[in-house]
Design a protein that fits this description.
CATH topology of the largest domain: Rossmann fold
Mean pLDDT: 92
Number of strands: 8
Structural class: alpha/beta
Largest sheet: 8 strands, mixed
Helix content: 40-55%
Strand order of the largest sheet: 3-2-1-4-5-6-7-8
Number of helices: 11
Distance between the termini: 43 Å
CATH architecture of the largest domain: 3-Layer(aba) Sandwich
Oligomer: single chain
Shape: elongated
Number of domains: 2
Low-confidence stretches: none
CATH superfamily of the largest domain: NAD(P)-binding Rossmann-like Domain
Length: 271
């Protein structure tokens, strides 16, 4: 028996098949979702998805098991206008900023689950946070979690109010890390390394440290201390990085706050 038996029987509708939608679809198909059970609504569908047995821009099933909305927040209003009212269908959204109330207006009396994944989902290493409305049962939440586990880990939130902070931290977070790699590489160049060597060292340092942070059964602070010898080179660097006024803590607090605030703005006016 597959986790996707009910979906294979009733169908899944995916509105938007860009980077995130495509990553999820790839994970679902690899885990037993039948291509013929998937209706993809995307007028600009990438060539890689053609001739895969999917139902592309076709009429929607009468009562699909799941409707997944994977369009950008700025496109959500138009997307919702194109989807008819569905009965007995779970609505799952992965769009930043768009609130559950918006979906409840479009789909009255419908279970809705809002999810925030991040871009490492493209390689199955994402982290998704989810919250459902009052009509979303434990079974609905379990189904949504099954779908999102195809692209990484899943956490459940206590309230929708937490979603903007999730967006500011993990949703936008990969871009912060990519910029840190850029900054580390440039700093290495200043100290005499070639651009290619500095970039390779920065990439692998961040990737290795991230993997260790996941696999080690220790607090990140302990891992940091394990690398740091008193009076050594790491301690000298951390004295700068951990400065309470000019270092990373205050900078990261402002960064996540800015992204979180923008998420709230998108929720009020998704234009």
């Amino acid at each position: 028996m597959s986790d996707f038996d009910d979906i294979n029987a009733r169908g899944l509708v995916l509105v938007g098949c860009g980077r995130m939608g495509g990553a999820m679809l790839k994970g679902w198909l690899a885990r037993g979702l039948e291509p013929g059970a998937v209706t993809v609504i995307d007028p600009k569908l990438a060539p890689e998805w053609q001739d895969k047995g999917l139902r592309v821009n076709a009429d929607l099933p009468e009562s699909p098991a799941v409707l997944v909305l994977a369009v950008k927040p700025q496109m959500m209003k138009d997307a919702l206008g194109e989807v008819p009212r569905l009965d007995d269908t779970l609505v799952v959204s992965v769009a930043a900023g768009t609130t559950i109330a918006t979906y409840e207006s479009a789909f009255p009396d419908t279970p809705v689950i809002r999810v925030m994944p991040n871009t490492p989902a493209a390689i199955g290493k994402g982290i998704s946070a989810m919250i459902g409305n009052a009509r979303a049962t434990d079974a609905h939440l379990d189904l949504a979690e099954t779908l999102m586990r195809a692209v990484g880990r899943v956490v459940r939130l206590e309230s929708e109010d937490q979603m903007n902070a999730v967006t500011g931290l993990s949703g936008s977070g990969p871009a912060y890390v990519f910029h840190m790699i850029e900054a580390m590489a440039k700093a290495g160049e200043v100290q005499g390394l070639s651009p290619d060597l500095a970039l390779e060292l920065a990439r692998m340092t961040v990737a290795g440290a991230g993997a260790l942070a996941i696999d080690a059964d220790e607090d990140p602070g302990i891992l940091r201390e394990n690398v740091t010898s008193p009076g050594g080179t790491t301690a000298a660097g951390l004295n700068v990085l951990m400065d309470p006024d000019t270092g990373l803590p205050s900078l990261m607090a402002r960064t996540v706050a800015a992204a979180t605030d923008r998420g709230r703005e998108l929720g009020k006016d998704p234009k």
